[in-house]
Amino acid sequence: MTTLAADREIESLMSLHPKGFDLSLDRISRLLERLGNPQDHLPPVIHIAGTNGKGSCAAFSRALLEASGHHVHVHTSPHLVNWHERYRLAADGGGRLVEDKVFADAIARVAKANEGQKITVFEILTAVTFLLFSEHPADAVIIEVGLGGRFDATNVISDPAVSVIMPVSLDHESFLGDRVELIAAEKAGIIKGGCPVVIGAQESETALQVLIETAERLDCPAFVYGQDFLAFEENGRMVYQDEDGLMDLSPPRLPGRHQFANAAAAIAAVKAAGFEISHRVADKAMANVTWPGRMQKLPQGRLTELAPKGADIWLDGGHNPGAGVVVAEALAEQEEKNPRPLFLISGMINTKDQSGYFSAFKGLVRHVYTVPVSLSEASVPNDELAIRAVEAGLSAEPVSSVANALMLLRDTWDGPPPRILISGSLYLAGAVLAENGTPPV
């Protein structure tokens, strides 16, 4: 396989700079100043933070804006297969992943501007985001926070068109705090004085209160799910409601009831950012939205051929208890409509609450096959992960790979075509898409 030029540039950076996160804005601000502060020369920015649902909100926002005929840049993280997935540049007919030559050139220029100063690779790649987005024309920019909010490298945006806080729950406790109100305060760090704020559906009243109080203290127009806007299912349709009235829409293409709330947050955010959203546009966006690796029906490929005949295979990169709950609910909804025996193939890393994730599937999953996450040094050994699943009340056994799990299920299951969920880590989701031969485009 040919190594892409941008990959070579990133590998070089990895050898020079520390891995991981170093939460501070000093280094990124210094670097951006050397680059001419490209973050100050962007179209209207939709800045999205939260524990779960950030990527879905970004996907819905992009779909809404592109359905309106707007040109949109999108930055998301992490990627699944290729680094290029993090940078989608505006184009006629819909955005395209950044071309390798353009990407590699931007990385090289940012690295040169840094002059070997201490910095993390994530900060360099965030600077690349702002450089690319400032040099290519667009009508809007969507930027997903990497980690937290207050000290995330993306939080040098001083005047966003709207800040969005999606559902907040426990995750990355070693960086953000071990109580949901502490995590909410970190996420609220992207809220800027006087700028509109959209607060998505929050399970925690404590988190919601922190977010509302921050918006009030900074004198921000705030739009709160359940108070100022909402969405619900009615007769198989999605109904969105805000102060402007009701919209009767096609159900979101992304499966799961939680996507109604994610879609609603995106509609509210795009409107708060100053863009008009017609009924026709919103309906088109719901039908066309895509978001790889998040409750994605696994496309036909090399891995799907190993599964039991007629199997219904889903892929999801959710990796914390909150994500487990929404995925389990989505599968329970599918079970109501089209009953099938459900099997789980899961790999996780050691910074996540494995038992908490598995507990969401108790009573729903027949059996769990635990696998190593080959792309992460932090992978939980598959035998240890099986113990965590058993502790959560599930039947489980370790298997050496996703491919072997699918073949084992094919050779031992003699019931009706099963439903299979492959989940527990974005690293795992990326590896599955690569091995299947169906990377994001």
Describe this protein's structure.
Keywords: ATP-binding, Ligase, Magnesium, Metal-binding, Nucleotide-binding. Belongs to the folylpolyglutamate synthase family. InterPro entries: Folylpolyglutamate_synth, Folylpolyglutamate_synth_CS, Mur-like_cat_sf, Mur_ligase_C_dom_sf, Mur_ligase_cen. It holds the Pfam family Mur_ligase_M. This is Bifunctional folylpolyglutamate synthase/dihydrofolate synthase. With 441 residues, the protein is an alpha/beta fold. It is built from 15 helices and 17 strands. The strands form 3 sheets. An 8-stranded mixed β-sheet has the order 4-3-2-5-1-6-7-8, with helices on both faces. Strands 12-13-17-14-15-16 form a 6-stranded mixed β-sheet. The chain has a 3-stranded antiparallel β-sheet with strand order 9-10-11, with helices on one face. Strand 14, helix 12 and strand 15 form a beta-alpha-beta unit. Helix 2 runs parallel beside helix 5 and helix 7 runs parallel beside helix 8. The longest helix has 17 residues. 53% of the residues are buried. The model has no long low-confidence stretch (mean pLDDT 93).
Q: Any key phrases for this structure?
A:
alpha/beta, 17 strands, Mur_ligase_C_dom_sf, nucleotide-binding, ligase, ATP-binding, metal-binding
Strand content: 15-25%
Radius of gyration: 21 Å
- Helical content band: 25-40%
The termini sit apart by 18 Å
Give the neighbour order of strands across the main sheet: 4-3-2-5-1-6-7-8
Q: Name the overall outline.
A: globular
**Low-pLDDT residue intervals, each spanning 5 or more residues:** none
Largest sheet: 8 strands, mixed
Mean pLDDT: 93
In terms of structural class, how would the helical and strand content be classed?
alpha/beta
Count of extended strands:
17
Put simply, the count of helices is: 15
Keywords: ATP-binding, Ligase, Magnesium, Metal-binding, Nucleotide-binding
Protein name: Bifunctional folylpolyglutamate synthase/dihydrofolate synthase
Family: Belongs to the folylpolyglutamate synthase family.
Organism: Mesorhizobium onobrychidis
